[in-house]
Amino acid sequence: MAAYEREIPFLSIPEPESSVHGLSAVWGRGNQLILHTGCGQRRKAEGSGDQVVYHQTPSTLHQVEWQTDMHNPHTRKLVMQSHDVFVSLQKQSPEDKNASRKPQLIKCSRHYRAFIAECVQDLRKASLDPNVDQTEAREYGDQCEIFQTIGLIWSLCEILFVETLPGGIVLQQLLDWVKLHFTEGDVKARNILMAEEIETTEEYWSAIYIYILQGRLTEARHMLSLDPKFQHDTHGAYGRIDELMRRMPVFGTLSRQSLAEFDLKWRHWQDTCRQCLEDQSFVSYPRLEVVCKILCGDQSVLLQEVGDLIQELGGWYHLMVTRLLYTNPTVKAMDLHYHAKASMDACGVSGRMTSLDSILDKALEFDIYQMIKISSATLSNWWFVAHLSDLLHHCGQLDSHQLNFGSDLREFLLLEYSSTLMSHTSFWQVVADYLDHCPQFGRHYLELFIERIPLKTERKALKVLKACEDRDMKEQAQSICKVLGMRCYRQGRLGSALTWCLRSHDPTFATYLADKFLTEYSLKGGFTNIDLLDNLGAGMLLSDRLTFLGKYREFHRLYEQGDFSDAGALLLSLLRARLAPKQFWLTLLTDALPLLELDEVVFSSKQTYELLRCHEELERWFKSEEYKTRILPKKSKGQLELEKEKLELLQLGLSRNIAQALLKEGCGSLQGS
To answer: What is the pLDDT of residue 544?
Structure first.
């Protein structure tokens, strides 16, 4: 079989320096590449030496996307509508063989068909809109033709694989198929009926022939009755042809007659039609004679007198349905490919089949895999093959056909379709739902995709985060929280940054933000976002520095409430635990000064000795190389004098407190004795 491939378009990137530096690319989301000129320099041989070539102008980023058929406003509507049907379909298990599933599957298929038809109408209107750019209108027109083709194929697949009838007789469904997709007869009839006076022109007879070719004999009889000759039919030819059409037997699924009984009636009716031809009942009426020959299934008439009409209606597949209608009305679905082959030979298309011919031919042969393969290679989007394969999978018509790289056919097509949607910013939720139902690789695709979703607003970020939490994607959820936390920090919103940090469970970032809160306190003498710090709860255990921050805020709260004893004990425990950075020790010891100056002795002698040891350790640190190289160069002369003054005040306050604490403890021991 010949290979079927899409035409590969040529794209020129307007980057002058690419001829020197080449082009580099980075993958975007889905079918998206970000192109730019090469690394910035390149060594090239020139004579005996090398020359370094640099960029003359800054590199420009070029965003290249492909397979974006589903991104315009009209096809986006189809994406959203079909997504709802897809999700509802996944709630039904393919293993469930209950007969009640079949009506639901047929309903889903018809929903898909209705959405395709609606999309065709929208694209047709857009292509004819005078306000639309000419190039864009041409693209809409091309897409309209593609979706018309998709609708034609889908309808046939629904007949063959979804809405299968008991006994396998499909003629009435095929007649509905050609009636739905080939409406030329209705258009011609409408033009004739809108005229002030009915004229039996070529178009008038073409409308009648089309109705008869499609088995719509009631409409054909109505059009025939409009002929003025019908009212003055002295020979009875019009009445006779009308009676033949009226009496044609039709086998329906709800018919109470058996197949054998219908076959007997149909043969008797066609014998009557042939007898009229033999009696030359219509020899004076060549148009009616053509009608009678069609009713008799005369192939020469179908290929000659009305051959042009059949080609206008669609060619071999319309010829196949018409021949079956008038030669073999009880044909079974499994025998259709024999009749398709005969019709293709009659129309001379066997050696020059189009893509559509090949797809329909494979469908009639019940070769689902080849049909999907050709459709994937020739149609411009993955929407059709992805949704059709999923529907056939639920109908039990598509086996788990494993591909070489481990995925089955259904999952591969769903992954490809999802990839075409990834580059559009509004489809991320749709993509996630499709990937959820790809058991082999869907989770991996989704993890990589979520990491690349642009989080332009906090509202969208919360939605993406909720999607991650629903799917237990902890790493991706943490990554999103980190990104938002860093964004809030850059915007100067420390409280929001800390909130996102707590959700991300990132100890490194928590330590960094805690240092920023402490630096802010050192500069301003107070905390912002007090409510957040007062309600850290177990979140403060995320890092030692954050624990210190939470406990330090608790110290301030105890002090403000007048609980000086507990406040002093907490302050001492913070120094003892060594959770605070060394450069913040002076602030902690300074916070002890108001407690040292109270009339009531807050610190015992033992606690005061601990504070003195911390004071001495801080003085030693001020003399260390670490302080002199990292901290000292950043301080002004005024800051250094202030530190020196604080250390002296602390020394004085601690000495005074030791005396008071020893005196109090001594008095207490005397009273006890």
So the answer is: 87
